[in-house]
Amino acid sequence: MPEPDETAAINEAHTEAHGVENGALYVGDTGTLALEARRALVQLLSGPSLDGRRHGRLWPALIQHRAAIESHLADLFLELVVDPDMQTAFVRQADTGELDTPILLRRKPLTFLESVLLLYLRSLLADAELRGERAVVERDEMMEHMALYESHMNTDHAGFEKRARAAIEKVKDKNLLSAIRGSEGRFEISPTLKLLFSAEQVAQLARTYQALVGDEDEEGA
Description:
With 221 residues, the chain is mainly alpha-helical. It has helices at residues 4-17, 35-46, 58-64, 66-74, 112-131, 139-147, 157-173, 192-196, 199-220; strands at 50-51, 78-83, 88-93, 136-138, 177-179, 186-189.
């Protein structure tokens, strides 16, 4: 293995051979962030979050270069939301008031079932945190909870189950659910959900959805 001085000389020779200036990461690079800081920034922009458990190398870079990353995000009218205790962070549009600014993060609206599922997972996460446990949920539990709202979907049972399964897959694709190895059909809920839904939003949505179920119960009485 080369000594530190030899390694530095090799890197310098490689840099000169490829026409990369000192400090640049590649030919034509004019960026100012360190490599790992750039990786953290890309993860934040690709979303939905940067999680210290899933992105072990990127979390320290985010903390170390947080001010610089926030500055780069501000250039795009974005702001960084960080929860150090949960080691999770995500990006959202900055509140620019009446200033007319372009919208970079165009998120697709949630379907009814997706919002129902996320609200349920958010409540499970809160309960698990109170107990000091990991938030874990089974696929059957999620399907059963969504089934409470089947009558409001105006679709056949097979069609409803298809949409419910699609909602679970959508949440998984967003890395808000992680499959637990060696445990078929069981998932860990990402703590990012705590940041995405405030307590006020949870309460408001819960009242709305509970009213739907309540109305159905009264009609069936």
